[in-house]
Amino acid sequence: MLLQLHHITKIYGTRVIFKDVSLSVAPTGITLLVGANGAGKSTLLRIMAGLGRASAGRVERAVDDARLGYLGHATFLYPALTALENLAFWRDIYALPLSDGALETVLERVELARHAHERAGVFSRGMAQRLNLARVLLSDPQLLLLDEPGTGLDTRSAGLLRREIAAARERGAGVVWISHDVASDAAVADRVVALHDRRVAYDGPASAYDPERSC
């Protein structure tokens, strides 16, 4: 397993966000994490990534930080740097053996090659999100954690995103994906984990998921 959560509980003050959450993430699979606003999806994903701490329970992660890709609401981009310079910065931070040509290839994958020398600060939300995806893909992550990555993307870019997520699965990665378009994205996923009433209400095949019966 790439990741295992054992009886995870998160409490803010006196408010219980979720309790007794246990699940595992295996290679070569896409898990869609769903639930109503305020159900704790983003909080749980941050705990998976090591960016937040559980109030109780235990996290076991078999992936080091360099092979964990996390894409949240913040883009982690530097607006004064070009697209290529942003990727070069993250390459150097993680000491990845990638040439500038390899960085340009990643930009091609997210359809930003012709914007390689433009500053990220002038990018639209969708372009910035695609550059953020390129940043995450640099390390060829074994565990990919995505918090509503389709936000701000047009139809073509959303299709590109789904292709890259499917390609990550084919490379053997485990993917956990919070979606704002469950109806469309569940068709791409292997599994759905649904949070409701502070617990896991459903954990099973995406093809069998019925949101009405999981609430």
Count of DSSP H/I helices: 6
Rg of Cα set: 17 Å
Q: Which percent band covers the strand fraction? A: 25-35%
SSE-based structural type? alpha/beta
Question: Roughly what is the average pLDDT, rounded to an integer?
Answer: 94
Q: Which bin fits the share of residues in helices?
A: 25-40%
Poorly predicted regions are none
Largest beta-sheet details: 6 strands, mixed
Instruction: Give the spatial strand order of the biggest sheet.
Output: 5-6-7-3-8-9
Task: Report the order of strands and helices.
Answer: EEEHEEHHHEHEHEE
Total number of beta strands: 9
**What is the rounded distance between the termini?**
28 Å
Key terms:
six-stranded mixed beta sheet; 29% helix; three-stranded antiparallel beta sheet; 215 residues; alpha/beta
Structure explained in plain terms:
Helix content is about 30%, strand content about 30%. It is α/β, with parallel strands linked by helices. The longest helix is centred in the last third of the chain and has 16 residues, at about 155-170. The model has no long low-confidence stretch (mean pLDDT about 95).
Helix and strand layout, with pairings?
Layout (H helix, E strand, L loop, with lengths): L2 E10 L2 E11 L3 E7 L5 H9 L6 E6 L6 E4 L11 H11 L6 H10 L15 H13 L5 E5 L7 H16 L3 E5 L3 H4 L5 E6 L2 E7 L10
Characterize this entry briefly.
The protein is an alpha/beta fold and 215 residues long. It has six helices and nine strands; from the N terminus they run βββαββαααβαβαββ.
